[in-house]
Please model this.
Amino acid sequence: MPKITVDGIDYNTEDLSENGKAQLASLQFLEVQMKRLKNEIAVYQTARATYAQALKAELEK
Model:
């Protein structure tokens, strides 16, 4: 059974119109992209905090 998962909910695509399938697929794509961006932001924030600590230590010398 083909399905699309959005917000943790599985939708059976066999019962949907082509428009409904396309909309769910778009939502699923956006959900994946949001997760990717959140991960990238977390990496950036960690790197920025590490850089700031190193800079502070260097300036305190």
